[in-house]
Structure to design on (924 residues):
């Protein structure tokens, strides 16, 4: 049986999450998010009367081998109708192949420009592959606009227009660094040196910091994203701070970062292209999430598979049901609905770009906040305080303040 | 004498007539011989619904018209051929054209009734009037366009003939000449003439599009810096050739305009400035003025007397004493700029005095930097991928595989270099267009050359080990182990893009993840 059915047999939904290894914290949040969404959907009768049954496979270190293996197990052994998860850093789209062969829906949050390329290379084959958040490319362009906005609105007066960029070795970091570099000149910023790709993460950032200091930049952007690496960097930067804004990629939002850095983190800028706006929907979700999974959990991460699970359930209901491996017809209908039906999730509006099959970011790629996932910019405050959400409008709820070292 | 038909006008027929009268789609009213209203049909009552209740019976036409006009129901009421003297006339409605406030146009037709009175019919002429007006406008615009075109063609004909005549003479000279220097000089002059004709035809195309209303503004918010940079690239060489100092001051502003049309306006200003400035400087700079950004092109040229400040924007206008053939100005640039600025809704201005240089400027709305779009519309790996800007040397004999691989790599933003002959590696590598960052080689190359050997030789030439991946269709475990033993990762054909991507990424950025290298 592959086509839509009216039986009460549960629909298996796969999820490839890092439940062990360095990203296990994120993996647990992804599992929480999917679990909460499945519980809510099942409480309302499931998809056209059929309940959902989540199946989690540990993607461990998130290498191509581990993620592909997880996808194969979900498809062959569990006959899942869809795979919905957070992000896996290492597979580089290798997992698309078994998923495309099976013709099931796959929604992930890998935040990779590679997704655009893979889908565009053969839209018919990869019809079911969706990225529930915008590509990391937008971090770069959006950050440059953010800097220009800070400067032109008079909130910050840079002493020059130089941006120093340090990148980690993963494609995610490199693409963000490249995107920052390519957008810089158009907005009147200059790079004193091309993005520096640090191939092996170091414990001692001081030599690189000193090298950057010689260029006296107005902005220092670090696109490495592991909270631990960023914390080491930031503590060493704060030993003798430069007169520049500091941007830390995503991971500095994690509790691990503030636990290590403490109040020295105050003033650093962090961004995410998928997070929780502090509006009514976002706050309500956070409360529900913490009530269920504990006060020290992170709904900002769990919201990713949570939102995509709900979007999938709506799309499948509109399409007339779900289908497992080989059920191309029904899954193509679901994919079509996903593309045509924007969904206002707790993280903002997920509207898939018709060619990229990735969520469109606001304000980076649309001027309409109701038609894009907000690219949120935070400024860290005290370790026990939530970071201030300073841009973009209409989501911001706090004002930028000059970092204490400036 | 009674008419034949009137014999049948019995009570039954009268009832039929009354029913037909009341059911008419057009407004109709019956007036008595002394000009007072006897009755009207519902369509007439609906048309003149400005009375508190129904239209008062017995009302005279004069009073009726006054009340209707006072109510504001009509925006115009006129007699065809002008207002006749109404004195003594009882039927003053017939022959009128009434324009109602809702845009309806009615022509009032009157005819005598049997009893000596008048029947008034209100005929809806709304569509006919609109069509007539549209026709009138179309005719006027066609006449204007025709006149413009004739004037334009006369002037263009004149301007086109001059370089054409020169070209004929130069071709003749060139054919006749046996002297290489003379021929070269003539060819250069021919080049100039052709450039003039190109300019003229380009301008004609622009004007043609503007005349046809085909130029539409596609307004977006973008960084002005991108337009200024393109102008710098276009005009820098021209300025340097003329010994002028062209300075384009950087701008960080986001503006709301049409990127292409704005560039054409500024290009015309800049082209003019360079043409009419013999010594000194041409400067492009911006200044905020409230919510507008004034983009100005300043020059230290000959300047323009105030009396010509308007006329310089006319087609083919040139100030006689500033013209010489070398400048080959067509007098269209500023006209095009003015018309493009009109399409954009941006004001333009000129400030100039003879001997004091000129300023031509355009005021553009300042945009929101968050809405600013960058030049590229399509976001893909070619512009922002992790491999963008890197060079890959591909060694693959099979032309189909090589082409497929090249397409894939180029889609990832990689510049592809190839070597097809391996006899003299040093010379071949020296002939490459760039230095490779990574090598992808087939194991078995033409002439019995092994890919691993070729890579080793290339690395000797480069004097730096270039990371390399070997691809092979041979799945023999011994062979694969041997290649890996030499420190090269191996991929088995057909190579999957994702597999290749992982290996390339690791080789380039995370070599510790490549087992063969450890």
């Amino acid at each position: 049986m592959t086509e839509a059915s009216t039986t009460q047999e549960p629909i298996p939904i796969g999820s490839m999450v890092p439940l062990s290894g360095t990203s296990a914290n994120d993996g647990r949040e992804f599992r929480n998010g999917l679990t909460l969404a499945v519980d809510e959907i099942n409480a309302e009768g499931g998809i056209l009367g059929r309940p959902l049954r989540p199946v989690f496979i540990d993607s461990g270190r998130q290498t191509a081998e581990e993620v592909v293996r997880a996808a194969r197990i979900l498809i062959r052994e569990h006959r899942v109708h869809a795979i919905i998860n957070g992000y896996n850093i290492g597979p580089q789209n290798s997992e698309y192949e078994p998923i495309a062969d099976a013709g099931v829906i796959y929604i992930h949050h890998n935040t990779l420009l590679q997704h655009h390329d893979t889908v565009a290379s053969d839209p018919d084959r990869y019809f079911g592959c969706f990225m529930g958040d915008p590509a990391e490319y937008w971090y770069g362009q959006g950050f440059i606009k953010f800097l220009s906005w800070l400067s032109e609105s008079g909130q910050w007066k840079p002493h020059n227009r130089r941006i120093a960029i340090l990148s980690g070795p993963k494609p995610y970091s490199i693409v963000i660094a490249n995107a920052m570099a390519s957008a810089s000149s158009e907005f009147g910023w200059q790079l004193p040196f091309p993005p520096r790709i640090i191939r092996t993460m170091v414990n001692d950032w001081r030599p690189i910091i000193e090298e950057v200091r010689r260029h006296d930049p107005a902005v220092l952007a670090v696109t490495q994203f592991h909270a631990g690496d960023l914390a080491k960097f930031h503590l060493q930067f704060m030993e003798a701070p430069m007169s520049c804004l500091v941007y830390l990629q995503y991971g500095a939002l994690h509790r691990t970062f503030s636990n290590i850095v403490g109040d020295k983190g105050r003033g650093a800028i962090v961004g995410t292209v998928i997070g929780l706006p502090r509006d009514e929907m976002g706050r309500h979700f956070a409360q529900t999430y913490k009530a269920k999974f504990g006060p020290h959990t992170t709904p900002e991460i769990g919201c990713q598979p949570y939102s995509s699970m709900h979007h999938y359930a709506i799309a499948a209901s509109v399409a007339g049901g779900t289908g497992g491996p080989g059920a191309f017809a029904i899954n193509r209908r679901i994919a079509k609905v996903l593309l045509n039906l924007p969904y206002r999730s707790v993280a903002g509006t997920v509207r898939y770009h018709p060619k990229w099959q990735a969520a469109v970011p606001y304000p980076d790629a649309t001027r309409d906040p109701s038609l894009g996932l907000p690219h949120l910019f935070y400024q860290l405050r005290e370790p026990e305080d939530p970071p201030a959400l300073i841009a973009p409008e209409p989501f911001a709820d706090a004002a930028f303040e000059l970092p204490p070292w400036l | 004498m009674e008419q034949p038909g009137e014999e049948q006008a019995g009570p039954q027929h009268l009832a039929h007539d009354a029913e037909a009268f009341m059911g008419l789609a057009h407004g109709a009213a019956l007036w008595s011989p002394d000009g007072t209203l006897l009755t009207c049909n519902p369509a007439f009552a609906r048309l003149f619904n400005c009375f508190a209740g129904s239209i008062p019976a017995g009302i005279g036409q004069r009073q009726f018209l006054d009340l209707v006009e006072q109510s504001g129901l009509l925006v115009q009421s006129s007699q065809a051929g002008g207002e006749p003297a109404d004195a003594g006339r009882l039927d003053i409605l017939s022959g009128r054209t009434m324009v109602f406030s809702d845009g309806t146009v009615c022509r009032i037709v009157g005819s005598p009734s049997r009893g000596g009175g008048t029947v008034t019919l209100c005929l809806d002429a709304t569509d006919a009037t609109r069509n007539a007006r549209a026709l009138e406008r179309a005719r006027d615009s066609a006449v204007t366009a025709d006149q413009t075109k004739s004037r334009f063609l006369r002037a263009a004909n004149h301007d086109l003939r001059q370089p054409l005549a020169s070209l004929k003479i130069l071709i003749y000279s060139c054919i006749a000449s046996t002297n290489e220097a003379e021929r070269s000089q003539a060819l250069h002059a021919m080049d100039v003439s052709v450039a003039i004709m190109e300019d003229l035809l380009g301008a004609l195309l622009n004007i043609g599009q503007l005349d046809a209303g085909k130029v539409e503004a596609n307004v977006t918010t973008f960084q002005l810096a991108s337009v200024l940079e393109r102008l710098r690239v276009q005009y820098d060489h021209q300025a340097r050739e003329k010994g002028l100092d062209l300075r384009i001051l950087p701008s960080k502003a986001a503006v709301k305009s049409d990127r292409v049309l704005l560039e054409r306006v500024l290009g015309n200003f800049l082209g003019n400035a360079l043409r009419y400035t013999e010594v000194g400087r041409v400067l492009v700079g911006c200044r905020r003025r409230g919510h507008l950004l004034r983009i100005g092109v300043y020059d230290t040229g000959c300047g323009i007397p105030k009396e010509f400040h308007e006329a310089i924007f006319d087609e083919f206008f040139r100030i006689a004493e500033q013209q010489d053939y070398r400048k080959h100005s067509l007098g269209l640039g500023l006209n095009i700029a003015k018309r493009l600025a009109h399409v954009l809704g941006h004001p333009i201005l000129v400030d100039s005095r003879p001997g004091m240089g000129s300023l031509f400027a355009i005021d553009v709305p300042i945009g929101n930097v968050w809405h600013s779009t960058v030049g590229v519309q399509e976001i893909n790996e070619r512009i922002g991928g992790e491999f963008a800007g890197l060079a890959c040397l591909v060694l693959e004999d099979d032309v189909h595989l090589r082409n497929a691989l090249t397409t894939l790599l180029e889609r990832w933003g990689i510049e592809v270099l190839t070597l097809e002959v391996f006899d003299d590696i040093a010379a071949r590598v020296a002939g490459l267009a760039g230095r490779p960052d990574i090598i992808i080689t087939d194991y078995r190359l033409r002439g019995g050359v092994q890919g691993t050997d070729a890579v080793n030789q290339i690395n000797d030439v480069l004097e730096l080990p270039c990371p390399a991946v070997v691809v092979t269709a041979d799945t023999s475990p011994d062979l694969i182990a041997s290649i890996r033993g030499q420190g090269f990762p191996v991929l088995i054909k057909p190579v999957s893009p994702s597999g290749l991507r992982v290996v390339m990424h690791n080789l380039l950025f995370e070599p510790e993840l490549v087992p063969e290298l450890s």
The mean pLDDT of chain B is 85.
